[in-house]
Design goal:
The protein is of the alpha/beta class and 454 residues long. The protein has helices at residues 3-18, 24-34, 39-46, 50-68, 77-87, 109-126, 146-158, 174-184, 203-213, 222-235, 263-274, 327-333, 338-352, 356-361, 369-381, 384-393, 402-406, 413-425, 444-453, and strands spanning 93-95, 98-100, 131-132, 163-167, 191-196, 238-243, 280-285, 302-306, 400-401, 429-434, 437-442. The strands form three sheets. Strands 3-5-6-7-4-8 form a six-stranded parallel beta sheet. A three-stranded antiparallel beta sheet has the order 9-11-10.
Length: 454
């Protein structure tokens, strides 16, 4: 398939969905993707920002996905169009009463209906019965995580990584990223299971659930059930996602310490990195679990993907806020956290009639009641040494060295070092370099909460 044919097919699909033809940027995205360019290269050739090209591409893939009723992305775009050529009846264009074998695929409405019907039937035949995504969220918007998606794909498909943790603060986009990866790769796994530990069950009940999804009748004891599951993940390519893993960890202790009733989870996660198999487990958590702590990750099939905020004003595009020129300042102020920004956008609409400039003119970082509730839960999960260290760190305006932070703290060396490490694993304290010195600082939004409410 050449680029002209691809543009014609895509134009007909988009036109059928929206009533409008492809615009110049959409054509540039399609041409660039077919030429195996990344979004940065496409943006450079169009003299547009990379974020603009990413947004155009996202909307384009979304339109095509809705029209064809399957997930379309830059990786499967070409093979999908080639499949359309094969599954739809060719249209012969007559030229001087002779057949022209260089077919133009200029689909009409009936042809599109035929294509959609063919694809629906193909999907029904190819769907795996062992996909359980009933607890997975529906993704509405997805912003600027192409690099992270590529990383996940590389770890799973190229490096065969068995255990992956996706980590970061509440609202940073961990669950959205993983669900987007799943949506784009449904056909790559025989078994996909998504479970949440928001209200965690015993490990044995989780095993029962996993086995039933795989159409296996659980055996009598835990050891036999684990053997059953091991047989499945060895024989089949499985993807198992556990969300909200932090809920099996103890409050009042350093990060990643398992509650006694959930200790079997730790043993199971360790086992998954020690047994050779072809499957993958993704743990989504606000705290890093101890199974991810190895001296040399190169020797073990484990990876940690730590997410930070997104500096993209598109986060606010559906909020009806005014003063778009100030949106980036607002996004930066609230660290690109989508949950914080959704909450503060509601406050701005209620109190400032949607005026971002008026809100920013207050020159205050407002902590809403919803944020307070979340931060209160976070603070209450900390150990006593961590709380003491947080209160001390909140007194500093700028990042400080370890020696500056340790002054006047009544903590033993062991508690001080363990607290500092634990707070980093909770993504409340960040580490950076300043003039060749390691310095530490609190998340600015959390710091404001600590100063005012702790």
């Amino acid at each position: 398939m050449d680029i002209k044919e691809a543009l014609q097919i895509a134009d007909q699909l988009v036109s059928s969905q929206t009533g409008e033809h492809l615009d110049d940027l959409q054509k540039a995205v399609i041409q660039g993707v077919l030429q195996k360019q990344n979004y940065k290269e496409i943006a450079k050739s169009c003299k547009r920002s990379e974020s603009r090209i990413r947004n155009v591409a996202y909307q384009l893939w979304k339109l095509l996905s809705e029209q064809l009723q399957e997930d379309i992305n830059k990786h499967n775009f070409r093979p999908t169009l080639e499949r359309l050529q094969l599954t739809s009846a060719p249209i012969i264009i007559q030229n001087n009463n002779k057949q022209n074998n260089n077919h133009n695929f200029n689909f009409g409405s009936q042809d599109l209906l035929s294509i959609n019907h063919t694809i629906k039937n193909a999907k029904k035949k190819s769907q795996f019965p062992n996909h359980d995504l009933t607890l997975a969220p529906k993704i509405i918007d997805f912003y600027d995580r192409e690099t992270e998606l590529t990383t996940l794909s590389n770890w799973i498909f190229n490096q065969n990584t068995s255990l992956i943790s996706v980590l970061g603060l509440f609202g940073i986009g961990k669950t959205t990223l993983v669900k987007r990866f799943v949506d784009l790769n449904l056909q790559q796994f025989e078994v996909i299971i998504w479970k949440t530990l928001k209200f965690p069950k015993s490990f044995e009940l989780l095993l029962d659930n996993l086995l039933k999804v795989c159409q296996q009748e659980p055996k009598e004891n835990t050891d036999n059930k684990i053997r059953q599951l091991l047989d499945i993940i060895i024989e089949k390519k499985c993807l198992i996602i556990l969300d909200d893993v932090q809920n099996i960890f103890s409050a009042g202790e350093f990060s990643g310490q398992y509650k006694s009733e959930y200790q079997d989870y730790q043993n199971f996660f360790n086992l998954m990195t020690e047994v050779k198999h072809q499957s993958h487990f993704i743990l989504i958590s606000q705290e890093q679990c101890s199974a991810m702590n190895y001296l040399d990750e190169e020797l073990y099939p484990i990876k940690c993907l730590k997410l930070s905020g997104i500096e993209n004003i598109d986060i606010l595009k559906n909020t009806s806020l005014k003063d778009k020129e100030n949106w980036l300042k607002l996004v930066t102020l609230y660290e690109g956290n989508t949950i914080y920004l959704q909450d503060i956008a509601g406050l701005i609409k209620d109190i400032y009639d949607g005026s971002v400039s008026e809100f920013l003119a207050e020159d205050n970082l407002i902590i809403t009641t919803k944020m307070q509730s979340h931060f209160r839960q976070l603070f209450n999960r900390l150990s006593s040494p961590e709380k003491e260290l947080i209160l001390k760190l909140s007194q500093f305006e700028n990042a400080v060295t370890r020696e500056q932070l340790r002054q006047d703290l009544e903590l033993s060396s062991t508690d001080f070092i363990n607290s500092l490490q634990s707070l980093q694993k909770r993504y409340l304290v960040n580490k950076s370099l300043n003039e060749d010195k390691v310095v530490f600082h609190l998340s600015s939004v959390f710091k404001e909460y600590v100063r005012n409410f702790c």
